[in-house]
Write a structure and sequence with these properties.
Blueprint: E1 3-4, E2 9-11, E3 14-16, E4 21-22, E5 27-28, E6 33-35, E7 38-41, E8 45-48, H1 56-64, E9 74-76, H2 82-85, H3 88-94, E10 100-102, H4 104-114, E11 120-122, E12 128-130, E13 135-140, E14 150-154, E15 159-163, H5 182-197, H6 201-213, E16 220-223, H7 234-244, E17 251-257, H8 262-277, E18 282-287, H9 293-302, E19 305-310, E20 312-313, E21 316-317, H10 319-331, E22 337-344, H11 350-360, E23 364-365, E24 370-373, H12 378-400
Parallel strand pairs: 8-9, 9-10, 10-11, 15-16, 17-18, 17-19, 19-22, 22-23, 22-24
Antiparallel strand pairs: 1-2, 2-7, 3-6, 4-5, 7-8, 12-13, 13-14, 14-15, 20-21
Length: 404
Amino acid sequence: MNRKITDTVTWVGKIDWELKTFHGEEYSTDQGTSYNSYLIEDEKTALIDTVWMPFSKEFVKNLKNTIDLNEIDYIIANHGEVDHSGALPELMKEIPDTPIYCTKKAIDSLKGQYHEDWNFVEVKTGDTLDLGEGQLIFVEMPMLHWPDNMLEYYTKDKILFSNDAFGQHYASEELFNDLVDQNELFTEATKYYANILTPFSGMVTRKINEILAFDLELNMICPAHGVLWREAPAQIVKQYLEWADNYQEDQITIIYDTMWKNTKLMGEAIAEGLKIKSPNTRLKLINTSLVDKNDVITEVFKSRAILVGSSTINNGILNSIAGVLEMIEGLKFKNKSYAAFGSYGWSGESVQLLEKHMDRSGFEKVMDGIKVKWTPTEENSKKLRAFGVEFIEKLDAMKDGTNA
């Protein structure tokens, strides 16, 4: 069902309640998502983005019920990824000559994916498109999160159509941020940033500052996924600037994988030591084989430090922790520290391998790791609690620039 946003702008997207994974299975979407497309009916008419390909026929049919397709003067393709552009082939069968405004990189990606030479019009930052009472001002947003991304500002209604920036994978019949559960909204917005945009935080800061330099009045932010920011829309911009600035909270997260619970017992003993030394610090203990990997990453994103553990298997580490560490390396977290731990029965390489992973990921090692052969004894547990205490002492000393 289409929804009026302003007298001029209509939401013509699709809510996908059933979606449980995204980007293949790289991103979990327990709350579903939406594919937001917007129709601007000024003196000229512009369609901003489409929806994912499985919904393309439904999208075009719905659009026909809203407007004569031949009245669409311009199509704006903010990003070539298929969740935004997937309905373009179906739509262009109906209006094949309609110009598609996008970045040069988006022309490459759209041609590469659909093998069609549509009527592309390349735009750059600062270019404008006159719709009558209002203009669209384009801003390129490379690597947020593809090289082809852009957004635009509609001057009449003072709306920023932000594509993948400021979005969430969050399905709701309530279209606006002030109408949904705020805890759910910010949980999904944090997860979205942590898992998708973290590697590009430096670019996030530069691009937001570039947009702010335009000194544009802002009534609403309309992203490509999730709800629209109409109440205090600048709050999510401010939040992005905080997240992009080497973000951390007073949280320590212990992540581990375990075969016969011995590494789990180690993690629990270390956690006791952490709590003894720093009772007010938020502490999370996560078995990576039992918890959604994107939720694990979100907790790492919020943490000032992590402890990472694994049993040794086949001279290596267990697969769930290995997968999470691969994600951590790719996300290029900044301003975070670590130590490693693990149990073993024979060779005991896990701690050394965990440290290599974390060093490659740019985390700062607080102290050498600790390992236990077979099941921890009470004496081992005392050493592990002491390890937790020492970890906090050294971590705080690193923060203060002193020697522990």
